[in-house]
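To assess whether the prediction recovers the assembly geometry, we first specified each molecular entity separately, as shown.
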Amino acid sequence: MATETKQTSEPDGVLRLGGPGLAAEPTGDIHEIETDHLEVSMGPQHPSTHGVLRLKVKLDGEWVTEVQPEIGYLHRGVEKIAENRTYFQFLTITDRLDYVAAMACNAAYAVAVEKLAGLTVPPRAELCRVIVQELDRIASHLVSVGTYGLDLGATSPFIYAFRDRETILDLLEMVCGARLTYSYIRVGGVARDLPEGEWRTRFRQFLDEFPPMLDEQDTLLSENEIFLLRTRGVGVLPPEVAVNYGTSGPVLRGSGVAYDVRRSKPYGLYPQLDFNVVTRPTGDCLARYQVRVEEMRQSVKILRQCDQLLDEIPPGEVLAKGARGVKPAAGEAYASVESPRGEMGVYLISDGSNKPYRLKWRSPSFVNLSVLSAIGRGWKVADLVAIIGSIDPVFGDVDR
Amino acid sequence: MEYVVMAAKAVVVFALVSGSMPFIVWAERKVMADAQARIGPNRVGPFGILQSFADALKLIFKEDVVPTGIDKRIFYLAPILSIIPALITFAVVPYGGPDLKLFGYPVGYVADLKDVGILYVFAVTTLGVYGIVLAGWASNNKYSLMGALRSSAQMISYEILLGLSIMGVVIGSGSLSLVEIVQAQATPYFGVIPGIWLFAQPLGFLIFLIASLAEANRVPFDLPEAESELVAGFHTEYSSFKFAMFFMAEYINLLTLSGVITTLFLGGWLGPGVDRFPILGVLYFSVKTVALVYFFIWLRATLPRLRYDQLMRFAWKVMLPAALINIFITAYWVAR
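The predicted structure of the complete assembly is given in tokenized form:
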């Protein structure tokens, strides 16, 4: 099995990484035959790229000698749109960034505006935020893990994942009326309190039923010899490179770096909650997959604590006073949350009006994707698919 | 008269084999749906059984897109070359014993090629690779070409295994004729265990089964059309009925290989009571074949796909030595 990762220093002095294919240096007579490199354009309409990613790939037979991601096919100028909307209005646009985990986008923006304007979020609203964010994290990881199986040719785990995700989407639909574009977390709080009665019953039922379902689905992949052959030791991302590229989320934690915004730069209710930051030391595709699966279990753990807190924190105000027409004083602020894909940060500059002067979105998918040209070299085409899947980019978030 | 009977048998078998293909596709979708907590096709006809016919009709009426810069003759020829071998392989597979007679003529098989038999099966299935290679070559598409290259390498490697894994059966039966191979399985071991080659040649059976999966491009060896890497592999540029022909060839191959495995290892038409009522043999043969098809579909619902080099390494470094060992053991046993 090819597990070794090569590091080469090219003339430009930049550290390059790559798989075992880079070892195919001219050594014997057979290698002196001049062979053509095949240039293939994977995407933007290609079944495995999870959206509109285009990869310029150079192939030497089945080996990838160079890979260059090309992005921008989904660019909508979100950051410019922000300059023409009031702080409260722009929230609905954030749904369209990471559309697989829109709650995290809502939260990132809301947290940043609150920091800039000095708004205090009511405790009940903080609790609602944690619950919907963790539910959404599970839903997002289910999509990621399910489609990862699909990338490697296993069709059944995908369907199982989407069956469980459906339950979460139903729950979130009961909360805010939308299944993907929630706009539930608002600047200064949340849109409304969580429903009582049936929602609560179904929420608890989900917490009980989901862990065994997840185990069943995980067994199909992580105990399958073929899946392990395809992912173990493939696309290794060493921790120092992961940090240098600025990756975050499961991509970083899969390389053994315990960085989780929920712990490292705590926000909301998270300091009170008990959960583990999941890491794996190996940094290969399997590690990134395992981190996601384990994070779902941790999210369930958080949600169980929240279920108790729902009885302890009395219902009441869920939106801070003056949030609707918020007009922050001139200044700037950066705040971030842990989205399912990593550190999702918003940098805001205010000129004292009711519209942002400038908004910068630090999207985790974009940063994580940038590592692809470094770790994608020297692997087979089939591995490239496995590596993209394990990075799990969402193109609404990459292109903004 | 003999030729008329032969022609009639050929037409009936041809019609049954190609006519069963829509039902295999339907069965695959239903079984997969069952494994995946879905319902599957249920709108067209009872239990959605006519879905495949609706799909076939749709494919025929689709626009036939022919890309520019292709080698036209080969582009048109390739799907035909891939479906014909799939259809004619069944000619030597016996679905009933020599006792199954209609008006005094044996109708248990289309032809019993005494001297070549099993060699005919391999010769014809090997031809199937031409359709795929030529399709990839003629399409003027990089994905098609890569799919075709993978496919040819894969099929050639696994055909060697197909051939080697049945050597044990051939040595044990002392014949290449498929009818005689089945008849050699009639005597039970120790008077109780069915005398099928599955029990005497478990290793050979396993290798043949795995190699058949690769030969039929089924999961986990469906690399030539691995959609996550190669879009649709060798048939990326094919549309309309030309695509349907590749699709049909694939499923008919699945059926044919199941039939061949049944014949070689599971005792073909043999079963209780077949001596007195030879017509039961057809039933036994069908049940065994359908069970194998079900097994292949089940695998597809469970397994991911291997990587190209892993697949080749598995063929040459694991399966080939195992097949050779199997031959040595069998030869020693027989010569003893």
